[in-house]
Description:
α3 runs antiparallel to α15 and α13 (about 260-265) packs antiparallel against α15. The chain is mainly α. It folds into three domains: about 1-185 and about 260-340, 3-Layer(aba) Sandwich (Rossmann fold); about 200-255, no CATH class; about 340-395, no CATH class. It has helices at about 1-5, 25-30, 50-65, 75-95, 115-125, 145-150, 165, 180-185, 195, 205-215, 220-225, 235-250, 260-265, 270-285, 295-305, 315-320, 330, 345-355, 365-375, 385-395, and strands at about 70, 100-105, 130-135, 175, 290. A five-stranded parallel beta sheet has the order 3-2-1-4-5. It is globular. Helix content is about 45%, strand content about 5%.
Amino acid sequence: MEGDFGSGDDGTRNTPPTTQARLSSLELASGMPLGEQPDASPLAPIEATLSARAALEEAIRGRLTVGRCVVAFSGGRDSSALLAVAVHVARRDGLPLPIPATLRYREAPKAEESVWQERVIRHLALDDWARIEVDDEHDYLGPVAQPVLRRHGVLWPPYFHSYQPLMALAPGGVFMTGMGGDNLFAGWRWGRLEPVRRRTVRPSMGDLARLALIASPQFVRRVAARRHPLPCPWLTPAALREVKARWFAHYASEPVRWDRRVEWLAKLRNLAVQVSTLDILGGDCGARVANPLLDGRFLAALARWGGRAGCGDRTAMMQGLFADVLPSEVLSRSTKAVFGLCMWRGTSQRFAATWDGSGIDPALVDVGRLRAEWAKPFPAPTSMPLLQHAWLAGTG
Length: 396
C-alpha cells in the first residue's frame, strides 16, 4: 500500500475505488472486517536521513498544492496534530492555509469538543473555520445515509456517511483526515514490556503475564485471546466459531516489536476498508481524500524512529512529533469524544422497533438475538451494518 494505501504521484488517490470497501457476508454479519488485506504492500523505502516528522510534512505538503484543502477537525489529538502540521507547512512554504472543518452535534454531550476545538484554532491563529451544526441528520438511516446506501450499498464503518457534508466543502480539492491515528498512537498492548525489560518501571503481575505470553507458541496466544469477548452475540453458533477463529488468530499475530507492528498495522483489512470507503464518499463530492498518517513513507519513518521498543505511550509519541506546533495540554489530554451515539437516533430506532426480521441471512444471524440487541438503549456499533442492510432489503 504505497502512499496512503494506494496513492497517486501527489499523494491522493486517482484511481477508482476498489472492492476493498465491500464486506464479505461474514464481515457484514459480525460488523467487523477481519484479518489482513490480501493485496497489502510492504512499507515504502525511505532514505536514511528522513525523520518521521519530515516524512509527515512531506506527505501533507503534497496535499496543500492540489487545490483547496479541507481538514476534518474534531478537536481530538490526531486531527489537531494533523491540522497544526498542515498549517505549519503552509506558512513555511507560502502555500494556501488548510481549512479546518468541524461537525458540531446538538444535544450530544459525549461528542462535545468545542472548548478543545477553540483552543487549537486560537493557538494556530486561524480565521477560516467551517463549522456545521448537526441534529439527527447523520442517523444511521437518516437523510445523509440513505442516498449513500442506495448508491453504494452498505459501507464500513457504517457512520462514515457523516463525512460527506465536510467533503462537500472541498470540490476539486483535497479532504484530509487523521485516519490511522488511533491505531498508530494507541492500543499497543506490548508497549510496557521494553521498559520492564530495562527495569525502568516496576513490573506488575500483568506485565509478567505478558512476558510469559510472548514466549508462548501462537496457539497459546490464541487461547489467551479468548478472554476478550467479541461484540457480536447475535451470530449463529457456526458463524460465531468462524469469526472467533479469524479474530483470535489476528489478535495473536500482533508483533511484539514496535517497528514490525507498524508494518502489521499497514496490512490490516480494517484500515484498508476505511480508506476505500472514504475514497468512495469523497468521489461523490468531487473531493480527493488524503490520509497522511497512513502515508507509506511516514509509516516507514515512524517504524524506524521507534525501532524495537517503540517511542513510549500515546502522549510521549505526540509530544515527540508535535510539541513545536501544539501546546502540551492538547497533546497530553486523556479525554476523547464519542460520536457513535449521535447516529443512533429516531429513524434507526423506529426501523429497529418495527423490523419484521427479513433481509438477514439466518445461516449467519440469529434474528431474535439481533432484535434484542437493537432493543437496547445503545446497541453495539458492530450491529449497525446489519441495520443498514436490513433497511436496504426492505426498501428495495
